[in-house]
Amino acid sequence: MASRLLFLFAFTIYFLSVQAQPARYRAAIDSARSLVERFVAFSDIPGAAVSVSVGGEIVWSEGFGYADLEQQVPVRPERTKFRIGSVSKPLTAAAVGVLYDKGKIDLNAPVQQYVPGFPEKRWPVSLRLVAGHLAGIRHYRGQEFMSSKRYATVGEGLSIFAGDSLLFEPGERFSYSSYAWNLVSAAVEGASGEDFLNYMQEAVFNPLDMNNTTADFTDSLVAFRTRYYEKTEGGTTVNAPFVDNSYKWAGGGFLSTTEDLVRFGHAHIQPGFLSDATLSLWLTPMKTNAGEPTGYGMGWFVGEDGTGAPWFGHGGGSVGGITQLIVYPEPQVVVAMLTNSGRVDYGDTHQRIAHLFMPTPLSYPAPDETALEPFLGEYLLNGDTPAKVFLENGRLYFSRHSGLPELLIPQEDGSFVALSGNTRHRFRSHPEMVVEMPGREGEMVGVKQE
């Protein structure tokens, strides 16, 4: 009887959500739901949520599976709070943007201007370079990602890395660092004169109606917070180990919902929350000292997908949760996806969902199946990583590590670009009749296995 009532409850929520969906998006929603169901089944995810907004209107929002497996509590996208990992960085960048618009922070000043307790290094370090992962501040080491220690203040969290040398001269190269954002949060405190979490609430969450976004406190109850899960090597779902993210609120310590995140993403499409000048600066990729673009602005990855469509966004990995937030500014489409499990493979699911809600459907010339036939099959990338190239329903796909297949978009020069935009594939026959598949990502070479 209890299980029947739970089913009826879940079905009622689903039915009401479907009825509330704008009719013009019904086909897109059906296709998107199929993509998410494939994604959830592929990674055997306990619970997931997805929300899509178009022009600032949430047109689809749905939960899949359970926020709590043991108690069979369904995911509710409007209130189930997931760990968002590094999607915390653009949230923090928004607080910096508010300060910048008010003239309270100088991005080019030495960071010690706002964090006087941070030790001076061999070279000066500006807040701009810190936020752009160009400052040479290190990332996690050893088991630091699994920290269970409680840090009472942002300043205490700096102690983990403050005494370490920079990895390189600032500006020399891009090196991703969550600890860099610890330093950014300390600068927010110095510039605002307020506690970091209080300022985030006042300057970002309240103005954007992000009523279900908060720090992942372990010393208090948080309403509708999901439980966290991980997979064993054998593929069994278990409770994730206990961690305390108080050492990195700014870089990976917030909880949120998909609906809060799409509202946040949309607020960066047009001026309003931030000024036009600040948005432009925040969403322009920085460059190294040698002038090489990094693909990262102020807290946002920025790029083009395989169709040439501009996007900005961020992914997030945390213990018991993986996140994707992507914004396509020209059609004003925002997609947020959250899960309560680690070891999750999104592939290009979030980007394929976004294209379903665009005014112009994803279309391109069909690949020449006859010409591609010799190149279909199993590959080894760089000699040890299995991969596969295959055709399905007239589209070419590539999968790595037995991961989710990614769509390959034909280009005029005969190459194929992944919809994610991360890799370019050129298929050619080696003089010795070995088939190779070079990729832009690390210049990988795939040798076909006969």
- CATH homologous superfamily of the largest domain? DD-peptidase/beta-lactamase superfamily
Largest sheet: 7 strands, antiparallel
What is the overall pLDDT average? 91
Helix share bin: 25-40%
How many structural domains does the protein architecture include?
2
Radius of gyration: 22 Å
CATH topology tier name of the largest domain: Beta-lactamase
Structural class: alpha+beta
Oligomerization status of the protein chains: single chain
Overall number of strands: 21
Looking at the overall shape, the CATH architecture of the largest domain is 3-Layer(aba) Sandwich
Report the β-strand fraction as a percent range: 15-25%
Give the overall silhouette: globular
What report would you give on this structure?
The radius of gyration is 22 Å and the shape is globular. The protein folds into two domains: 85-356, Beta-lactamase; 369-448. The N and C termini lie far apart (55 Å). It contains twelve helices and 21 strands. The protein is of the alpha+beta class. The strands form five sheets. It has a seven-stranded antiparallel β-sheet with strand order 3-2-1-12-11-10-9, sandwiched between helices. Strands 18-17-16-15-14-13-21 form a seven-stranded antiparallel β-sheet, with no helix packed on it. A three-stranded antiparallel β-sheet has the order 4-8-5.
